[in-house]
């Protein structure tokens, strides 16, 4: 047995509990999937914030480089030095590429719990698709664990973002993190 499987089996009693809270199997499944998605979102958000905090010096360096190149390119443009503008703009685009890649990496950190959730769902629900009370195009009357989790994860993440953007302590914490990145 692999280490991941052992860890998933260790967590199984806590992960499966919400699936059994409601008398209806379908409602319990949907509640369990939503709570599993919330666990993934919270752990991912915390991880992304931590990685951002750990890498704040590097993120500041890239941002400063982009800002510096932007100022230089505007100065070159004002004096009409097209060659300098092109050379500086190329360096600025390179810095922007680094910033974009770092942002993509931090996003990947925010979704790292999903494969583990899907692995656990596979252990539990690979042979038990969700029976739908209606027919869906391309799916029929059943939905496997992967599409059901993915759809509910996306919906839950959207709701989470909408709610958390209005929660004062969350906004303040995120603003402080961004503020720390912008300080030189």
Structural features, described:
- This protein is mainly alpha-helical.
- The protein has two domains: 48-110; 113-184, no CATH class.
- Helices cover 79% and strands 6% of the residues.
- It has helices spanning 3-16, 25-54, 56-79, 82-110, 113-125, 145-164, 168-182; strands at residues 130-136, 140-143.
- It is elongated.
- The protein starts with a helix and ends with a helix.
Task: Give the key terms.
mainly alpha, 6% strand, 184 residues, 2 domains, two-stranded antiparallel sheet
**If helices are DSSP runs of H or I spanning 4 or more residues, what is the number of helices?**
7
Q: Which strands sit side by side, in order, in the main sheet?
A: 1-2
Radius of gyration: 23 Å
Instruction: Work out the number of β strands.
Output: 2
Determine the fraction of residues in helical runs and give it as a percent range. over 70%
Q: Find the structural class using helix and strand composition.
A: mainly alpha
Which strand-content bin applies to the residues?
5-15%
Main sheet attributes: strand count, strand direction, barrel closure = 2 strands, antiparallel
Q: Give the distance, in angstroms, between the N- and C-terminal Cα atoms.
A: 49 Å
Shape: elongated
Extract low-pLDDT stretches. Answer: none
Number of domains: 2
Task: Name the helix and strand elements from N-terminus to C-terminus, one letter apiece.
Answer: HHHHHEEHH
| Arithmetic mean of pLDDT | 87
